[in-house]
Amino acid sequence: MSLFSLLGAVEIGLIFSLVALGVFISFRLLRFPDLTVDGSFPLGGAVCAILISTGHNPYVATVAATAAGAVAGLVTGWLNVRLKIMDLLASILMMIALYSINLRIMGGPNVPLINDETLFTLLQPPGLDDYWSRPMILLVIVIAAKLFMDWFFATERGLAIRATGSNARMARAQGINTGAMVLLGMAVSNALVALAGALFAQTQGGSDISMGIGTIVIGLAAVIVGESILPSRRLVLATLAVIIGAIVYRFFIALALNSDFIGLKAQDLNLVTAVLVTIALVIPQLKRKLAARGR
């Protein structure tokens, strides 16, 4: 695999580590099976792309995209908490609705950003090629997101969200408004996913309606792979594991698709994903069996 392919894998891995952090919040901390991710990821890309293409500042466009994702998460939570729609069904309904909303926002199936200024062109150090600068900028953003998560979920409100996911009945007995915590958790989760979508659109030169297909699978794969590599109940290590999992996942995807002797092509991406997730799920079981035999 060439250096260019390696840096490209790291770049995409860092973007999807934000998706994985969002999925980690919903699936692991809130125990909320959220499929809104497949809609909020292209939502972030759509909002960011349309604002940049119409002359708005890339910083403003990225923040607006993140806020749009938070609103999408709030609506999913509201459907579940206020209208009592089952969590999985509520997220499916929102995901379906976002497909049409994203088309409305973009005014078509895609919005190109070929010659427009983006966050990465503004922050690119002089004399440094973009395939080096983009991973560096993304690394700073991902570290900032991780530190924010570590801080937020150690606050009183963050601990209330974690308590809601662990045992909602006990949390209510302690006076926690579990409904509000679900809404807040879902907003933070989908805000991170939409931020990833906005960054993805800016690195790939535009937004496309199909860019969100399979996002939830990639996010879950990153979480599972990360937890297999670095299993821990401490939040600081768990968020680090998720980021590592996303990068490792994309590295193996790039390695598989760029290895001529294997004979895999771009259309085999879902097959490679399924194999990697299966291996990541089996490894902990093998570890437990080996440990039991050792005892």
UniProtKB/TrEMBL annotation:
A GO CC term attached to the entry: plasma membrane
GO molecular function, one term: transmembrane transporter activity
Organism domain of life: Bacteria
Coiled coil: none
Location (main, coarse): membrane
Ranges that cross the membrane: 6-30, 59-81, 88-107, 136-154, 175-203, 209-230, 235-257, 269-286
Keywords on record: Cell membrane, Membrane, Transmembrane, Transmembrane helix
Entry keyword annotation includes Cell membrane: yes
Localization in the cell: Cell membrane
Pfam families recorded: BPD_transp_2
Membrane topology, record value: Multi-pass membrane protein
Xref: InterPro entries: ABC_transp_permease (IPR001851)
PANTHER family named in the record: ABC TRANSPORTER PERMEASE PROTEIN YPHD-RELATED-RELATED, BRANCHED-CHAIN AMINO ACID TRANSPORT SYSTEM, PERMEASE PROTEIN
The protein's name in its UniProt record: ABC transport system permease protein
Biological source species: Diaphorobacter nitroreducens
